[in-house]
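Render this sequence as a predicted structure.
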Amino acid sequence: MNNSSRSGLVVAAYGRHCLVEIEDGSRLICHPRGKKSQAVVGDRVWWQASADEGTIEKLQERRNLLYRQDEIRTKSFAANLDLVLVLLAAEPEFSESQLTRALIAAHAQSIPVLVVLNKSDLGALFERAWQRLAPYRAMGEAVLPLSLQAGAETGVDELERRLQGKTTLVLGPSGAGKSTLINRLVPAARAQTNEISRALNSGKHTTTSTTWYWVDAARSTALIDSPGFQEFGLHHIGPTQLAHLMPDFKARLGHCRFYNCSHLHEPGCAVRDAVGVEGGIDENRYRLYGELFAELSQPRY
């Protein structure tokens, strides 16, 4: 790298513009050298000063990149993550398909996942939702109960402990309480959002949809809030990879009669033999596997 290049952290990205935080904590708009910016929130970059703004010279090597891909486009969420937090709620009812897709995408990048079920104050509704997550707990996924209800708050201390010192991407469907959670964990969240909006709205830039928040003054714990949970395409993953990225399936691999078993119809399939039996594979999980396998087997044009 050029000797005048300095290291920075991308805390917001929109189009070709990035907001980069430098060593002293200040932030400035940076533009890529080429026509298209590859930088996403969480990237470390080498940058150089240019007038009142900066130029991104090069991306530093990523540890990981969480993204989704449908038939038309690829959407990157964030890079260099220590954890993905999937926030669900007892109400409205969550989609197991969305949850499964998020877990598969995270496992494909070897990023640990924490599933948090909000609204534990809702009694029977919560118990029913908690039971739906039993197969995920059984296969080793971390699942925590939470309530952010004023006067009935529970689970926040344990959650904060799990997030400490990490960079965490927060995903969740509408109504799960994502904004409430971020405002609870990051007292200055609104101020940080306004700061980013002001920087990127300075007459020629547009506000970002993915936002980096520092949780602590020491800047050791971060939350990244990103939309886009509703449509979680997995077209970057081949159908034969699926079973390897689903822990309850992976535990049975290598025991089928055929080495290239699809786990859909072949005789002597260890995966199919485990469906619906105690300690085996949940029937709904197997149904989701079949749907995803069919979706990812469609011809690409």
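Summary. The chain is about 25% helix and 25% strand. Residues 203-207 have pLDDT under 50 and may be disordered.
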